[in-house]
Queue: 4 jobs
Job 1
Amino acid sequence: MSYNLKGKTALITGATSGIGRAILIALADEGCNVIIHHLKKSPEIEKLKREIEKKGQKVWSFSADLTNEKKVSSMFRKIKRGVKRLDILVNNVGNYLKIDLEKLTTKQWHEILGSNLHSTFYCTYYAMPLLRAGGGGRIINIGYASTGQIVAKPKILPYQISKTGILLLTKAYALNEAKNNVLVNMISPGVMENSIHKPTKEIPLGRTGKLKELAEVVIQTIKSSYITGTHIEFAGGFNL
């Protein structure tokens, strides 16, 4: 049986641009009410709200530094009071760093693990009571192509470690929350149309991924009632 998205409420972290924005719009198109998470206020937020409202869906926005547990806890308290429910969580927030290993600082190490792994755990931890209270729900964690491959990549070490950690977190929560009908999956994009570097010659399918295509994969995974603990690569064969 397909999971009906109409009338559900979804929180997308880092929803004002790129992958997060594409998923936000796709969910609204499916009839979801949406919660926009952002770090800083910008004109884009009000523009997004108007766009969602024109589709006939409810929309809220909350600001929080997701590397700060207290700020995450506060955001979810506000969601519980103001929105009153949560059915879907998309953990999209996460910084990327490519640097020679000998130049990597301890500050950068903590920043990358904080923005990727810790933020995903905090949001999952504080979202879970709301998801359970609604009779179940869906969590999608965003990775990167080749997440989980145990191949040393010194220039992106903290990023690689953080995303591999999210994969383990995905599987653990999927196993633990199946009894509560909370399905947890990971989707890992490769080189996208908005990526800074576009090494298309290294992609077997010969092109970058489109944000709309990725959002469609997210939607289909959320709709499934029998997919959980799965890692889906959306990468055109990149990094196989």
Job 2
Amino acid sequence: MRKSVLYILLLSVFLVSCSKPTEFTEEAKKEKVVDYEGNEVAFEQILEKHQGKKMLINVWASWCKDCVVALPKVKQFQKENPEIDYVFLSLDKSIGSWKKGVSRFQTQGDHYFLKEGKKGNLGKFLKISWIPRYIVVDETGNITLFKAIEITDKNIEEALKGEASY
């Protein structure tokens, strides 16, 4: 009996830790990020701004080689999918580095600096272990793809079409 209970408990913990959320937690939505003009905005304001549109979030940093190498593909993806709203969340170490990166790479979209980085509520919610990281959000603010690490991942396009399998 004890083994059965222990097994069920461990299985439950495993399933919860592997689950992929479909909506942002209140704590993640309340986290303040910095916009390009230097204003602090709650993440939920970003979601509200893009409500009614599909959104692709790109978590990146200007120091990240994989992120920089992926940017030409991101720009091509943007050309092929102009109807999508693009949001870039930076994990740069400083606002100055982030702004230099945005200026240098000229990516189109809304840019924000995660001042709390991976340790903030939004970073913890996203479980950021690798960047670049792509998240797809639908018109109602629900997450349809929680994690992709390459812009060429077929799951991104499927999620944008409403065919996500996660």
Job 3
Amino acid sequence: MGRRRKAREVVLQALYAQAINGEPLKSVVKDQLSRADYDEEVKGFVRRLAGKVDEEKEALDRIIAERATNWDLGRIALIDKLILRMGLCELLHFPDVPCKVCINESIEMAKKFSSSDAKRFVNGILDSVYKGQVLKEK
């Protein structure tokens, strides 16, 4: 498994733990990073991604709500919402990560951590945002 994929999994676990127990995200991230011997690149990416997702949570949720037609944000499974937040955050705020990589990594996370239908849902939302960004740039 690549270092960035491992970092994404750590971020997902931290976001999930924070959503369940309500502890400050920095504390949860620190705890997650203490569980294994991660190199500095992984640690840095975990901190950057987790922090940006937390900082942009409301804006990311608005985008999800806009793109998830016929779905109330409260009805979306927590794990799917977290995967979407992470993927959107990378698409919109991490120019060093190619857009296709953001989408593919999010789909892989959905396959691994969510239901069998989640990959299509995640792909649909992220692809919609990606296509919207590409059209804006033209």
Job 4
Amino acid sequence: MSIKRRQIREKVLQALYAHELSGESVDLILEHIVAPLKKEPEVFELARQLIIKTIEVTPELDALIKGRVANWEFNRLAVIDRIILRMGICELLYFEDIPPKVSINEAIEIARRYSTEKSDKFVNGVLDSILTDLKKGGRVKKTGRGLLETSTKKKP
């Protein structure tokens, strides 16, 4: 995969943002925003799967987010932050080959680059908390060596 996963996630963020604001069909958004990734079929397929799955399970993802931001009105969260959180949680739950630490770190970096000054810390806190709950509930299914570590916190 010569295109970095960060670039894929950035395209996914753009596509989900366009879908959120325009309500356009997924096919149209894939064709206009994600089409440049078609040069590498496996890259395009990863982006397509993440977009479709995130949209498909948005109510479930939003319920998990709402459970962690009880002191906030959900609709007042920055749209970019909501989308980044949805993507991160979707990866945690449905993408068995992506380590949780990678999903969280990528979400933090994307928040740092595309959202508000404090979004990276907000995204980190929410995703780490949700990951802890998902692990306790046995909902995180990862395959392969080293894909489910005991903690996302860095050791000294």
